[in-house]
Target: PX domain-containing protein
Amino acid sequence: MEAEGRVPGPPLPPPSLGGGGGVEADADPPAGAPGAARGPLLAAEVLALDDEEDDLEVFSKDTSLAEVNSFSPSMPISPSSMINQYKFEDEPELRDLFITVDDPESHITAIETCITYRVVTKTSRGEFDSSEYEVRRRYQDFLWLKSKLEEAHPTLIIPPLPEKFIMKGMVERFSDEFIETRRKALHKFLNRIADHPTLTFNEDFKIFLTAQAWELSSHKKQGPGLLSRMGQTVRAVASSVRGGVKNRPEMFTEMNNYMETFSQKINVLDKIAHRIYKEEREYFNEMKEYGPIHTLWSASEEDIADSLKGVASCIDKCCKATEKRMAGLSENLLPILHEYVLYSEILMGVLKRRDQIQGELDSKVDALANKKTEKDLFSEEIGKLEDKVECANNALKADWDRWKQNMQCDMRSTFTNVAENNLRYYEECLAAWESFLASQTVDLHVEEDSEDRP
Model:
């Protein structure tokens, strides 16, 4: 079902590499430039899935994700785009890792229904054995990758994946829009990672891009066992029970405050934008019925038939303009807003994990103050924890700056697109009605001239 393997190809010219952002102490060396889609919305009840149903997931409960090149405000948005072109001023344009997600396939068995996607990777990096790879991955593979990245880099900002929700009534057969929405979300997820100066060199990411199905399955089994994961959970709970962090640097307190405000505002914007889209769609459906009524009426009103047909034509043009405006909202505004709703949740989680590391250090310092013996052992542990906290702080600070700059760039680009779409919409509607008024004025003058003649 998941036939995949390496596809040999001609070597790519090695691009120049540039650094950027923070790196964890035990992470691979940074390189590369950092960076970082949709039919009508489906209004349906959203149901949560179990783990074995992860493949039936979408990006949003009631919206789909346009494949927006978030880090490329100056570049045209294209569904076929494979590269996030955004770059900082002091970083190079060239990249050495290109990923695209396409060709979704449904697989139906007696046990389950799932969808796999082709993941094509082209690279000139020396650590890869080939310059091109082609594999097939299902959604739970993407979830595994995300969890491994979070495990290896707990204080880096991992890009969001589609949420674990499914539209009711679409379990057996998925619409093309449903599948395309998920494909675009997964494509964006991988390219965000590829553009990250640290995550792009993660070993699990490389395995995800290159391993055959059986190789990936074997690698997954090598992960931490249940007891290890339970231990991590217990430590996290214990850290939260201890209360707030005593010695949290002011910078991270400001980050927490910023994210609380950001999360509140972006969630409100997301809800209002969806409500606006819903009302716009209802208006569009009314317009589709409104115009033809004037055309039918004109058949029984010979004296005003031209006027009625003119109104019908104007409404039809406005209807088409409304449809394009709706497409702009669903492709440019809604997915970006919702993506940053998910990002806000991720950032809050990252900040909590940093606090947990800080909490471990604080507890050891307190224990050392109360212990008269074993001071050497505690001092050694405290030294290691101090290094761990410093690495966590440096990694988060650098990733925070990168994320915030990308977010601001995305928002400026998104709101600019919305403004341009609104201008085109109102210009088209205004032109249609002005043309109608002009024709009515000409007809009125002709009638007056004919009445004045002897």
DSSP finds eight helices and six strands in the chain. The chain has two domains: 5-223, 250-452. The beta strands are 5-6, 46-48, 97-108, 113-123, 132-138, 165-167.
